[in-house]
Q: What sequence folds into this?
């Protein structure tokens, strides 16, 4: 999938959870959503993007993505 589309989708999820009062709750909400609803290939791609210095993600989305399992070689 196009990484720009993944970034936009992840930020949309981040905006949904952006109203949570605590940063930990925002991060956990995004992580849970990605783990539950995103295909493993999508999760690996967004994680690789962030590991490679990807830009454009909301701070709490970036933090949630970094909690996903790293891609396997």
A:
């Amino acid at each position: 999938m196009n990484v720009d589309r993944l970034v936009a989708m992840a930020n949309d999820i981040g905006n949904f959870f952006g109203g949570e009062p605590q940063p930990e709750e925002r991060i956990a909400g995004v992580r849970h959503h990605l783990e539950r609803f995103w295909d493993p290939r999508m999760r690996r791609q967004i994680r690789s993007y962030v590991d490679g210095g990807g830009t454009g993600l909301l701070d709490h989305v970036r933090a949630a993505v970094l909690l996903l399992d790293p891609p396997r070689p």
Residues 16-66 form one domain. The two ends are 19 Å apart (CA to CA). The mean pLDDT is 94. The chain has four helices and no strands.
